[in-house]
Specification:
- This protein is mainly α.
- It has one domain: Up-down Bundle (Amino acid/polyamine transporter I), CATH 1.20.1740.
- 75% of the residues lie in helices and 0% in strands.
- It contains 23 helices and no strands.
- The chain has helices spanning 10-25, 30-37, 41-65, 72-79, 82-95, 98-113, 119-134, 138-164, 174-177, 183-198, 203-207, 214-243, 246-249, 254-258, 264-300, 317-332, 337-350, 353-365, 367-371, 379-401, 406-432, 437-442, 446-455.
- Helix 3 (41-65) packs parallel to helix 18 (353-365).
- The radius of gyration is 22 Å and the shape is globular.
């Protein structure tokens, strides 16, 4: 089958990244963050944005040097070890429950507009609809994202400018902002939540060669999308904590704060153009991320080859619909949104060390690609950023882990045990068929080797 050559332009990639960030960050988890940090949430947004950019520098370095569809899985399995690459796949499998999170977030706003609609049935329907859209390729998703993000930014602008005149100065005095209700521990837990949601810009790493001029546009997209969105985050957070007392806005959707100062058609537009569309942009991006990562794993042989097939639109449709099915099971099990979020966020934070190792090994493994990358760091800076980022990630992860329900982290542990058992069974099964899974997962893609050889001729141009 001949693959299509249509890719995401820079503007499409930025829209996709911004939509992925804003949808999960502002409309879904602002209330949860306020519940932990009180009026310290604007500060939490600012710190989280700085940490997100800082902690993603190593990934951007690798993504700029050797773009790859499948993102961090490809880098970990090739540069570090196939087993750790597989652990990353297990973590991504848990992460794909983010589709359930965003579908439920959409439904939370939808039922406000359509009283009587079932929260979980609505979430299941929208998940299926966007899986169907994703089946038609990245450019279809990219065009849709551009339109939705434009409406979304307008809705947030209405919220920000409409809310400024209703801010009660007594809610946002310096004393209250720097002394959140939960103390520093509460502020740090809030940072963990909003930092996780700010990571939406890393969608570009999973898409890799689906983006035009990926070596340049991957880091450029991430930095621009995260910077622009961080400004919006800070403004929305300031308005939210300023317009109402803690008990009215904590652990509530952003719509509850909007109801304090928006009425009539303005409120309707905010719900439609903001809350609903924002969650859909993240949902749209989530399908692209998880389907491509699991396609890369199937291509290597971790999952059966059945899942490695792409349709005429160059979409890994079988992995796309599989992660959709898993998310539908979670949705229809009627598990509470906050619990799903913890299950999705915690493993990646606690296992963060494996994500940073490829950046440290890149200069040794593919030195020419590293030296000729659009974005790169010197050795000392790279080590400092990676080591401190691992420490911060584990600290953030632990702050959330302590708030998990026992049955949730026990289920998480059982999942990883079953996954590891599958790993050894799969290796032995393929070995009997004459296939060495470990060797296949270590092999560099031809495009990396070609890029390394080509970069050798241009190293002097820096």
């Amino acid at each position: 089958m001949k693959e299509t050559k249509k890719k995401l332009s820079l503007s499409m990639a930025i829209a996709l990244a911004m939509g992925a960030i804003i949808g999960s960050g502002i409309f879904v988890f602002t209330g949860y963050a306020i519940g932990l940090a009180g009026t310290g949430v604007p500060l939490a947004f600012i710190i989280a944005a700085c940490l997100t950019i800082y902690m993603t520098l190593p990934s951007m370095q690798v993504g700029s040097a050797i773009p790859a569809t499948g993102g961090s899985y490809m880098y970990v399995s090739r540069f570090v070890h196939p087993f750790l690459g597989y652990i990353q796949i297990l973590n991504t499998l848990i992460g794909s429950l983010n589709i359930a999170v965003m579908s439920l977030a959409f439904s939370a706003y939808f039922v406000k507009l359509v009283p009587g609609a079932d929260l979980y049935i609505s979430a299941a329907v929208i998940a299926v609809v966007f899986a169907g859209i994703g089946t038609f390729g990245v450019r279809m998703s990219g065009r849709l994202q551009q339109i939705i993000v434009a409406i979304l930014v307008l809705a947030l602008g209405i919220y920000i400018f409409g809310g400024f005149s209703h801010i009660d100065p007594t809610h946002v005095t310096p004393a209250k902002v720097f002394q959140p209700l939960g103390g520093f521990a509460g502020l740090w837990a809030a940072i963990a939540i909003v930092r996780y949601t700010l990571q939406g810009g890393t969608i570009v790493l999973a898409l890799g060669n689906e983006i035009e001029n990926p070596g340049r546009n991957i880091p450029l997209t991430f930095f621009l999308a995260t910077f622009i969105t961080a400004i919006i985050y800070a403004l929305v957070g300031y308005v939210t904590v300023g317009v109402g007392p803690y008990e009215l806005i904590a652990n509530k959707p952003l719509a509850d704060a909007a109801q304090l100062f928006l009425q009539g058609p303005w409120m309707t537009f905010f719900l439609l153009g903001g809350g609903i569309l924002a969650t859909l942009t993240t949902l749209n991006g989530s399908f692209l991320i998880y389907s491509n990562v699991h396609w890369a794993a199937a291509r290597d042989g971790i999952w059966p080859k059945f899942f490695a097939k792409r349709n005429p639109h160059n979409v890994p449709h079988r992995t796309l619909w599989t992660v959709t099915l898993v998310s539908l099971l979670i949705i229809l099990a009627r598990i509470e949104l906050g619990r799903i979020f913890m299950i999705v966020a915690v493993p990646g934070l606690l296992l963060s060390a494996i994500y940073y190792l490829p950046s440290l090994l890149l200069p040794e493994k593919l030195p020419n690609c590293h030296k000729n990358a659009y974005f790169k760091m010197n050795k000392t800076t790279n080590y400092i950023v990676c080591i401190t980022s691992v420490g911060l990630s584990m600290w953030l992860g632990w702050s959330l882990f302590k708030r998990m329900q026992p049955q949730d982290y026990k289920a998480m542990l059982i999942f990883f045990v079953i996954g590891i058992v599958y790993w050894f069974i799969r290796i032995n099964f393929l070995k009997k068929q004459g296939t060495d899974l470990i060797a296949d997962m270590k092999a560099y893609p031809d495009i990396w080797l070609e890029k390394e050889a080509a970069a050798n001729t241009t190293i002097g141009v820096d």
